Amino acid sequence: MRQIIQHFTDDDLYKFTMCCAVIDNYPRAQVKYAFTDRDNTVYPEGFGDKLIEQIRMLENLRITDEEIEFMKRRCPYIPIWFYTYLRGFRYDSKWAKVTQDANGHLHVEFEGNWSDTIMLEVKVLAIISELYHEMCGDLDDIDLDAYKAKSYRKAERLIEAGCYFSDFGTRRRASFAVQDAMVGAMKECQECYKGKGRFIGTSNVYLAMKHDLVPLGTMAHELICAIAGMYGPQMSNYLAMEAWTNTYRGALGTFLYDTYGWRIFSFNFSEGFANMFKGLRVDSGDNYEQLDLIVEKYRSLGIDPTTKQVVFSNALDTDRAIAIQKYAEGKCIPSFGIGTHFSNDFSGFRHLNIVIKLLGVKITESWTFYNETCKLSEDHGKYTGNPEVVKRFMEALDFRPSTK
User: Fold this and answer.
1) CA dist list (Å): 392 to 210, 246, 261, 374, 397
2) Residues near 388 by Cβ (< 8 Å), separated by ≥ 6?
3) Threshold 0.85, pTM exceeds
């Protein structure tokens, strides 16, 4: 069977940066994750068995000297000790449990040390996406040259519109080859086409190395979710910002704020944090409404919002990014992380709407029970977790989705 993930750093940067912060701040934490298919997809017969085999294949991955030297050069904010950890890191398929029920639905769970299992999410999602398309025959007729041309035109439009944008497409890509072709085309466009905007890089560390780009990323919702499970959601954003600052000392200063909505984050976002972090990432809700709230918050703290970066990453495509760029000019420093639209934009087959989210956490292995956690965000359809836990967190936070 062909191994889908063939490189240790064929992964998003934020998994490495979060792993480092977890070891630095919560080295003994234990976690549980669960897979969600928002479209309740029926997977091909035998899919679960093939997925298990692919996860076992991860056990043969080793980080190379070339990958480490690239990360040291391009990611100087990562402490040197972390590379010693990565040299010794080994995947273990025992961390994952995979089943496929009689109706063809897929069930995936991870459990173990947070510093270990944190490295599974993106790789396993990428495997599921590519394996699904492969088993359905979707990849047979893909014309990579045509996809390169299509990607080049997207980059051309975004550069012309003044957008600073990056590829965030690893998790739900059609295949590694498709993402590779797309990143290469956008790099070529950046070098050949002159405009106000810029293709600034990719979240995929291996592809950044291959194409000599900057790997981009900071954190995911799981950091805030885990802290909320351990200590409660009210101060989870504050504690996450403290932990992040402890590890990165002001570097990697784009905070993902929407785990429990804008309102509670805004209470935790003090003048000190607002000055320290270079910006915020919008990943749910109405992009325009969220930007207005961010601008208003900075102004209330006496900070000029035009000096702050706002990264938009909420279900973007080329047209949406260009429209937001026009609205955001003069309000902030906008940039865009675009995922599925870059790495899985084909007519004739649909992309999977899949996530893996952290559901339980305990601060040390000596605890006899997990504390459940959940994710709320600004999109009602994106709540993840046990419905009873979601209800409890909403009550604890007096949760109210933002309104303009």
Assistant:
1) 46, 30, 15, 10, 9
2) none
3) yes
